[in-house]
Amino acid sequence: MQIGIIADDFTGASDIALTLAEAGFRVAQFNGVPDTAAEPGLQAGVVALKSRTAPVDQAVAESLAACDWLLAQGCGQIVSKVCSTFDSTPQGNIGPVLEALAGRLGARHIMVCPAFPENGRSVYQGHLFVGDRLLNESGMQDHPLTPMTDADLRRVLAAQTRWPVAHVPAQVVARGSDAILAALPETPAMVIVDAIRDADLFTIGTAARDQVLLCGGSGIALGLPANHGAVRAEPSWDPVSGPGVVLSGSCSRATRAQVARFRERHPSIEVSAQAVMNGSVTAEKLADWVLGQAGVPLVYSSADPQAVLDAQQAFGREASAHAIEMLFARLACILAENGVSRIVVAGGETSGAVVSGLGARVLYIGRRIAPGVPLVHVQGRQLALALKSGNFGDEQFFETALAAMEGGR
Ligand SMILES: Nc1ncnc2c1ncn2[C@@H]1O[C@H](COP(=O)(O)OP(=O)(O)O)[C@@H](O)[C@H]1O
Ligand SMILES: O=C(O)[C@@H](O)C(=O)COP(=O)(O)O
């Protein structure tokens, strides 16, 4: 393997795995740190962790374990994959994880760029935009676990690390990869690099040829396979048919619109945090309901910011999130055991829980359903998944994903 990715959540992992696959690399997603060697012939491995919201010590330990495994597979470059909206808790895992990885790898500079222009995330003058809004006005300020209230990435990162945080502005990036390298400070630093177009990310990829450690969203990987001579290609997909289900634990704006649309045309059931916490809803009861439906049903806990806030005030932020995630994990496990073979999941934390519930250790990446979301196939099983990041996909995403799994559109 040449490039190793440590992803802080599962949707993010499949997002960057798609970028690498489309750039022509043979890639697999590993859910958690594997305890055996990877199959031969892979050029990139993505280790998916559920560390974005974990306590700092745990996130650091898991990231180092992932790094060690990737180094043992031969990787010469490590990418720490974070969200394109730079999601982190107020305690902040991104800075401490990068410090630890830099220590392990001997990195002096860490270029940091979460831009994903195709999905509207751009970094300009150190600030992160979602479309034409600053991050803190994009809806991310209401995220259930990682509210983002500051768009200045230099300030966000500086609050999480003892390292100096430098900045390479768009004007320098536009001058090319040598200009980026020349702009890196002489002393060790984390460096926010602006990118507003894919072309900027390709330039950053070229500049990063000899950098042992990088940090970013999936866009940071756009130009990396070309450094190894890879040529762009569409990943292949073997169709999977059979019963399907949509599981949505994401409360992000895009997901709520997708839920609203899907509900109009398909059987659906809402799960409230209250019902999960008082035990009146269980995975077993939900599975009975799902398996009794004609067509593809939707189970969702997706709720607006006020409902989420009410639940958090009543039961606690972590406790309500954890209980809902465990419900989806158990539900997915029962459904797969009963023949459900197409599962669309909305939400990064939710996807982590579901994939763990399914006991899926290795995922192969198929073609794209939407920017940042590939079809994925669980190794050794007739089971297709789509792990959709909260804010990705258009309103028809769920229907598109289910059809794409069967080979159609
Ligand atoms: N109704 C709800 N009330 C409180 N928390 C919720 C509710 N529904 C989902 N959650 C929690 O919110 C979090 C959503 O995060 P995630 O799945 O990563 O979605 P996204 O990709 O949109 O960020 C999960 O931990 C989930 O369990
Ligand atoms: O970079 C991104 O935006 C995604 O790859 C990602 O990490 C999304 O996280 P969630 O919104 O929590 O699914």
Structural notes for this entry:
- This protein is α/β, with parallel strands linked by helices.
- It folds into 2 domains: 3-228, Rossmann fold (3-Layer(aba) Sandwich); 244-405, Molybdenum Cofactor Biosythetic Enzyme, Chain A (3-Layer(aba) Sandwich).
- It contains 14 helices and 18 strands.
- The chain has helices at residues 10-22, 56-72, 94-105, 153-158, 170-173, 177-183, 198-207, 253-263, 273-277, 283-291, 305-315, 317-337, 348-358, 397-405; strands at 3-7, 27-31, 44-48, 77-81, 109-113, 121-124, 127-130, 133-134, 165-168, 189-193, 213-216, 244-248, 268-270, 298-300, 342-346, 362-370, 373-378, 384-388.
- The protein has a 15-stranded mixed sheet with strand order 9-10-5-11-4-1-3-2-16-17-18-15-12-14-13, with helices on both faces.
- Helix 11 (305-315) crosses helix 12.
- It is globular and about 65 Å long.
- It starts with a strand and ends with a helix.
- The chain binds adenosine-5'-diphosphate (ADP) and the ligand O=C(O)[C@@H](O)C(=O)COP(=O)(O)O.
- Residues 143-145, 249-252, 255, 273, 301, 303, 307-308, 311, 320-321, 324-325, 347-350, 389-390 line the site of adenosine-5'-diphosphate.
- Ligand LB5GJZVW binds at residues 9, 11-12, 15, 83-85, 116, 217-218, 347-348, 372, 389-391.
Keyword list:
409 residues; alpha/beta; Rossmann fold; Molybdenum Cofactor Biosythetic Enzyme, Chain A; 2 domains; 15-stranded mixed sheet; 14 helices; 18 strands; globular; binds adenosine-5'-diphosphate; binds the ligand O=C(O)[C@@H](O)C(=O)COP(=O)(O)O; ATP-binding; transferase; EC 2.7.1.217; kinase activity
